[in-house]
Every structure is written in C-alpha cells, then in structure tokens.
Design brief:
Penicillin V Acylase, Chain A; 2 domains; eight-stranded mixed β-sheet; about 30% helix; globular; Ntn_hydrolases_N; Peptidase C45 hydrolase domain-containing protein; Peptidase_C45
Length: about 350
C-alpha cells in the first residue's frame, strides 16, 4: 500500500518520482483556452492541486504549465473529444439499524489487476483517507508507461465513503475534474451533508455518478451531468444501488448508454444486486438482517456484479470502521483488511 504524509507540494514530488520511474507520457499539445478556463476554476476552488502540480514539475524538470495542463485539463479535453474510457462498476449501500454497509466492484481492463494502487494519504491540514486507483490507465497505455494518481474510491478518517461509476451522459463544462472532486470531498468533508454542499459549490467538468455515505447512515447518489446534478436517496428499506445508467427521469433523456452499447450490462448488474440484497434482507439465506458477511457473496459470487473485468472489491461497514479489500491474482483471490 502506498503511504504518504506531507504537503501537496511534497506529494507532487513523490508522484513525480513515480512518473519518472514509469516513463509517464505527459501531454505535449495544449489548448490555451481550456488551460485558461480550467486554471481559473482551480485557483478558486482547489488551488492545492496546483501546488501538487508544481511539485511534479520540480522533480520531472518539465515546464510547470505543461504539468498543470496534464493535471487539470487533459481529462476534460478527452471528454470534449468523446474519448473517455467507458468503464462498468457497481456500488451499493445498505443501512440496517445503526450499521452502514458498502459493497463496491471496480470494473476495468483485466490487466489493470497487476498495477492498481492502494493508497493511505495524509496531507497536511486535511483529513486522512484510504484511496484506490487504477493509475489512470486507458486502453492505449496500460499503466506500465504511466503513473497518475487518480482516486476512484476513498474512505476518510471520519467514516465518509465516496466512490464513482462511469456516466454515459456526454455533457461537459469547465470545472474541477470528477476524479479531483472525489478526492476533494475525502480531504475536506466529514459527512454526506458536507459532501453535498461541496457539490453545490464547486463546478464539475464532466458527467459522473457518485455514491456517498457516512457512518451515521446518511447516504445518497449524486448523478452529475456537468451542468448540475440529481440526488437519489435510499428506498424505504435503506438501500441504494448504483451502476452506470441514469436513475431519474430528468437525466434519463440525456443518457446515451444504449447508444454507446445496446447490450450494456449496467441494467443486469443493477437487477442482480437488487435481487441479492433483497434475498439477504428477507432472510432467505437464514439471516434475520443484513450483515457484513453478506457483502462478499454479492461482490464475488455473483454472475454479473462480479465479472472478468472486476479489478477490486470493497466491503465496508462505516459505523464500526470495518474495511476489507478483495482482488484477484494469479494465485487466486487476495483479501486485505485495513483501517485507521
């Protein structure tokens, strides 16, 4: 597990050394208009990321402007050109009494299993958090030629979880990168309520889906479409499920999941997660209530939620701080327990 304690600038230096080691290919061409607009956003809402970029530039000896562009603008440029990587992923949350359970499968290219990173990050003046990263791998460069800290899941010291899934809404705007807003919330927020306040305050540059939950049981889905977002709250059973399709009528008309892939498995993953959670809640498997041990079978023994593209799985109980990570290796499934 990657462990870091220090300032943003020092974190940038650390990342810079990793980039050198892995022969990272920085963006060379820059769009001055995108750079100007994005820089203005980050100066206002997330200047710490600019400090991190300066640390990277110092170590790599690259022009500061080039590194900053790579950090705050390249993902937006890819979205504008509709080059974004279309990932799967499933997240669910179950509130049972005072317990809050999270199950998460991150799906991407199978070869990413060899290079995904587990991170324990403690930046000066911010909340410490555990994060999980696919190292920003794309089909064209499989991790061994790049190393870019890109947070896909985070759990912070206050028991706040936030994870994302890909959205097929192709709208974009000038704003903080969707991966960065996830990290911002882990670093700055203690509760789901504070996370929602951050979303209302900070513009996000592309559509993305987020599930947020805290240890008190307050949990929500945020389906962002770059120009705003929709909030989905738990059903009467205390259950939330998030895959990749739009869940509210307002944004379903914007969703292009069927155009992108007429046989996309987002709906069947959602349905399977729903059915398996319902079985546990009804006590079909001899349970009287949902338990921590019920998360693993849904994540790792299912037919669609777990699939050949699943890179890592998280089983979390936020109120007690019980956290498990599962992933596959050539030797079989590995399990790691972690916590603060």
């Amino acid at each position: 597990m990657l462990k870091f304690t220090g300032t943003y600038y020092e974190f940038g230096e650390y990342i810079g050394r990793q980039l050198i080691e892995n022969n990272h290919d920085f963006a060379v061409d820059m769009n001055d208009n995108i750079m100007r607009r994005q820089l203005k956003v980050y100066q206002k809402y997330y200047p710490e990321m600019l400090e991190q970029a300066k640390g990277i530039a110092h170590v790599t000896r690259l022009p500061e402007k080039q590194v900053i562009y790579n950090e705050i603008a390249t993902h937006l440029e890819a979205r504008k050109r509709r080059l974004a990587a279309k990932k799967g992923c499933t997240i669910f949350a179950v509130r049972q009494g005072r317990q809050v359970f999270i199950g998460r499968n991150y799906d991407w290219m199978p070869r990413v299993r060899m290079i995904f990173e587990k991170c324990d990050v403690n930046l000066a003046g911010k909340y410490r958090y555990f994060a999980f990263s696919d190292q920003s791998t794309w089909p064209g460069h499989l991790g061994h030629k790049t190393w870019e800290y890109a947070t896909e899941d985070a759990i912070n010291q206050h028991g706040l979880y936030i994870g994302l899934t890909f959205s097929h809404i192709d709208r974009w705007a000038y704003g903080v990168d969707s991966l960065h807003i996830l990290r911002y919330i882990a670093e700055h927020c203690r509760t789901t309520k504070e996370a929602l306040t951050a979303f209302r305050k900070i513009p996000v540059n592309c559509a993305q889906n987020f599930l947020i939950a805290d240890k008190t049981g307050d949990m929500t889905i945020v389906q962002h479409y770059a120009h705003g977002f929709e909030v989905v709250r738990p059903d009467q059973r205390g259950v939330l499920i998030l895959t990749n399709h739009a869940l509210t009528p307002k944004i379903q008309k914007l969703d292009k999941v069927r155009q992108d892939n007429p046989v996309h498995d987002t709906y069947v993953r959602y349905a399977e997660a729903e059915q398996l959670i319902t079985c546990q809640l009804k006590g079909i498997n001899n349970n009287t209530e949902f338990q921590f041990t019920d998360i693993w079978p849904i994540l790792r023994r299912s037919h669609y939620v777990y699939n050949e593209e699943t890179i890592w799985s998280l089983a979390l109980e936020l109120s007690s701080g019980r956290y498990n990570l599962y992933y596959d290796t050539a030797m079989g499934q590995e399990q790691e327990k972690f916590g603060f």
